[in-house]
Amino acid sequence: MSNINGKPVVELPAKGVLNLKSGFLHKQLCDGPTFSAGTACAYSCSFCYVPALMQKDVRVGAVMAETGASFDGLVIRRRGAVQTLRSQLTGRKGERRYNDPNDTRVVFASPLVDIAPNMELARETAEMCLVILEMTNWQIRLLSKSPLIVKIAEIIPEKYWPRLIMGLSTGTTDDALAKAFEGGTPLPSKRVAALHKMQDMGLRTFGMVCPSLPVDDYLAFSQDAMSAIRIDKCEHVWGEVINVRGESMTRTVDALVAGGFSDTAEAVRTVSTNREAWEQYARDTYLAHAQTCPPEKLRFLQYVTNANRDWWAGKPGAVLL
């Protein structure tokens, strides 16, 4: 495989794919563990935080220098990811390292790259899931922007389905809008259809309504989103507004303008340069979700400061970061 979505594919040796103490614990997406078979994604979402995080890595910097490509112009895979994961789950004598039947932690994939941008990578994800399912008693939460996540579920034997929790990111249900700022991703309508298929298959599912952009009518937006993901069939729903991550806001504004969404671009520009406007946008988004999603299901991710912590503290479904 020489490229994906027009990006050259580079493989680096896998030092490790399993992280037992990730920050995703605080987002309540897992109980600490995450795993990832890649470092740079096949998609090019303008809001992505990974470039700001990973392009500082020495090995990644060397690849960028050698290829002359930017971080988001590459797909970086971890060579031998499945075997590395197995070794991380195996003791010195070949025994299962995490064999406690009461250890049913949730592990999340993927914190860095999409798990199923094409069939080859979807199969790799399924293989990694099978290693975890066979060698631990953990549950696995999978998140993707690709309908191929359904294929992962179909590869995994049905006896393991109760330990899978499947979700698709749907920060917007507007296909044209998503196409403007979620580079190379399948349309939201396709993602929603895939989510419905997994729900109809009897799989456990969750919603991921993020990141969502500023809108004129937040309640209407939330109602549409919760209806699309079939909130009654989701165990939980995560929501989040778009946050400043490196050059994410600038990239998003530029992408929206190029895609013909100048009004939305201006709204993003406003909230990115005005702290009070950003706070109001976050509160309006949360309050809308709080009306449309049962509080026991809502997980609204919010970065807080000393200035706004008191407002957010104790809000049902708010996860303070």
Annotation keywords:
alpha/beta; 321 residues; four-stranded mixed β-sheet; 39% helix; 15 strands; 21% strand; 2 domains; seven-stranded parallel β-sheet; single chain
Radius of gyration computed on alpha carbons: 19 Å
Task: Tell the overall outline.
Answer: globular
Major sheet details = 7 strands, parallel
Largest sheet, order of strands side by side?
8-9-10-12-13-14-15
Q: Which structural class matches the secondary elements?
A: alpha/beta
Total helices: the number is: 12
Order of helices and strands: EEEEEEHHEHEHEHEHEHEHEHHHEHE
Helical proportion, percent range = 25-40%
The number of distinct structural domains comes to: 2
β-strand amount: 15-25%
The overall pLDDT, averaged over residues, is 96
- Low-pLDDT residue intervals, each spanning 5 or more residues: none
Distance between the termini: 39 Å
Oligomer: single chain
**Total count of strands:** 15
